[in-house]
Amino acid sequence: MFEIIKSDLAGRIGILHSNHGKIETPAYVPVIHPVKQTISPKKIKDMGFDLVITNAYITMKRHGQNATKRGIHDIIDYDGAIMTDSGGYQVLEYGEVDVIPADMAEFERKIMTDFAIPLDKPTGYGLSKKRAKSFVDQTLKDAKETLANKIDNGQIWLGPIQGGEHQDLVKRSTKSLVNYGFPMLALGSPVEFMESYEYKLLAEMIIMAKKQMPDAVPLHLFGAGHPLTIPLAVALGCDTFDSASYILYAKHDRYIGEDKTIHLPNIKYFSCTCEVCTKFNPKEILSLEKEEKVNQIALHNLFAIKAEVDRVKESIHEGRLWEYVMMKMRAHPKLFEAIDIFTKSPEYFLSTTPKFKEKAIFLFSKEDQYRPEVFAYQNTVMKFKTRKKVMVLTKNTITKPAFLTNEYSILKNKFNDSESIQFCYYNPFLGLIPLELSDLYPASHYEMPRSNFRPEDFPTFAHVWNVFFTKNKFDVVYIPRNDDFLKYFVKLLPKNIKKKFLKK
């Protein structure tokens, strides 16, 4: 059902197989209203969206048994893959719906949706632990019964993960759904998190769910389709995500940019080059009749969201998702809080980030010491052992690897018995770089600014330093005389090691 083509961080380019064709992920899934859709589904398909989501509950209420005769593809006039929400949003908004889960599941089966979601009880945000647990328990019970009674007709059923900010509930919910055998999962209730700017909580919820899931199981994220949050969601492991933001924002003259939403009357110039923004200027769109105005803004918003998804895909393809996400995280202070997820859990991204890439990594600021490629290299260095008793340590060469440089030749010639010396280099991000490991990715494949970094900002360097000098027993360490960065760490050397300065 799902094949992974390429990955970076926890994000992956993959292929979802459905009854109505293939869907490349990560994929934004536009919400289609089953009764009053503004932009035609055909136009949405032509724009490159191969999967849409519509509401099965509203479809049932408006079309009844006629829907089971016609099928959901005829109802919304869309010949691609369709996902249906079973009414969970209505439950979240109004407390309940007048249909039981078994009947809703039967309806979804009969309308032949491609991706079906059992009727769940969303926890939302702000519920007490006790009440949230009761919602999770009910959702799991209904989901298990739905899956047990399904008919093998090619439909893909998504297990709805609930629990909200209660991480232990998210964990239990996810593990249970995996054990039931759901081939795809969907993480519920993120809208309220994002409305409250609780991006860090959302990130923690995604990671908690992903840690309980096999890699082969794709993850859908409900209600998270804004360019501001798409890179974060993908980097953490979300494969598909839906939203009606493109039309909801349009109804209030809100124009989606790369990292923000702007009230159209406040815009003087369009920087976008989509078919809407090249045809109209802001004033011209505002002067249109209301229905046409909403349609044009909504169309632009769809283009903006698709462009962001494509930028994220390209970042995965190029192996630069870390750089892209770090840049996007600085678009909003509350979003930047979620950067802790990346700096405090580098091991989470290790297995899904390639150990070797075709391009050099870029190192900018202290956060980059936690990149998974760097973390993997540090782990390798901390396993390095030598019997040599003399060490020469200096800043890494500009040309890499070090052993191919003239700098190394000059340095080596300063010692009579260079073969008995452990030559080692460093940079603030990677830590120590033994000569023997200097051509190992990314030690010879990085670019960084020529800046003076504060040693106290690099705890990973200190950790690598302490482990390295514990495992290797040096009598003498040679260091440059005026290296302020190294000076800080020399104090951490074991007392039995003699410190000497390198001669110029």
What does this structure look like?
By secondary structure, the chain is α/β, with parallel strands linked by helices. It has two domains: 2-344, TIM Barrel; 361-501, Uracil-DNA glycosylase-like (Rossmann fold, 3-Layer(aba) Sandwich). The protein contains 21 helices and 20 strands. An eight-stranded parallel beta barrel has the order 4-5-6-7-8-9-10-11, surrounded by seven helices. A five-stranded mixed β-sheet has the order 17-16-15-19-20, covered by helices on one side. Strand 19 (476-479), helix 21 and strand 20 (498-501) form a beta-alpha-beta unit. Helix 7 (129-148) runs parallel beside helix 8 and helix 14 packs across helix 15 (321-328). The model has no long low-confidence stretch (mean pLDDT 93).
Topology:
Elements: E1 2-8, E2 11-18, E3 21-25, E4 27-32, H1 41-46, E5 51-55, H2 56-63, H3 65-70, H4 72-76, E6 81-85, H5 88-94, H6 101-110, E7 115-116, H7 129-148, E8 156-161, H8 167-180, E9 184-187, H9 190-195, H10 199-211, E10 219-221, H11 230-236, E11 240-243, H12 245-250, E12 254-256, E13 261-263, H13 282-286, H14 290-318, H15 321-328, H16 333-336, H17 339-344, E14 361-362, H18 372-381, E15 390-395, H19 406-412, E16 421-427, E17 431-434, E18 446-447, H20 459-471, E19 476-479, H21 484-490, E20 498-501
Parallel strand pairs: 4-5, 4-11, 5-6, 6-7, 7-8, 8-9, 9-10, 10-11, 14-18, 15-16, 15-19, 19-20
Antiparallel strand pairs: 1-2, 2-3, 12-13, 16-17
Helix pairs in contact: 7-8, 8-10, 14-15
